[in-house]
Q: What sequence folds into this?
């Protein structure tokens, strides 16, 4: 019996130093951005004379910029649930435009699938 215990202790003594060695640092894995699946249109054109861009999706959110009528914005994401503001029900959309990133209320945007379509609509909005 002592031989079995001695073998076990010897095995533990040999394995223990190996398990206490230098720990390997975790590897950082960078994945490509995943497109937002809840937004069908990727581009929007402002249909308001002066649209407030907010820091968070709320009428109480700090205004970080303003976009003029016919400005083009890339739509990045949207809130999960619609909200009613000034009698209009819509989602808040996270946008990027003219170096500004923030949230705008959807009833003040017209949506398009491509940037070319948005540019064409913006031009026609400006001209007439």
A:
């Amino acid at each position: 019996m002592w031989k079995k215990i001695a073998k076990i202790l010897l095995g533990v003594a040999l394995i223990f130093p190996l398990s206490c060695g230098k720990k390997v640092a975790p590897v950082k894995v960078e994945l490509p951005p995943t497109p937002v699946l809840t937004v069908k249109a990727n581009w929007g054109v402002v249909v308001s004379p002066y649209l407030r861009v907010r820091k968070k999706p709320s009428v109480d959110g700090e205004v970080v910029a303003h976009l003029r009528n016919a400005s083009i914005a890339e739509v990045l994401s949207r809130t999960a649930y619609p909200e009613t503001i000034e009698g209009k029900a819509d989602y808040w959309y996270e946008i990027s435009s003219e170096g500004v990133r923030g949230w705008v209320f959807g009833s003040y945007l017209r949506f398009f699938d491509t940037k070319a379509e948005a540019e064409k609509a913006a031009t026609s909005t400006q001209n007439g």
User: Anything to note?
Assistant: The radius of gyration is 28 Å. The longest helix spans residues 2-19.
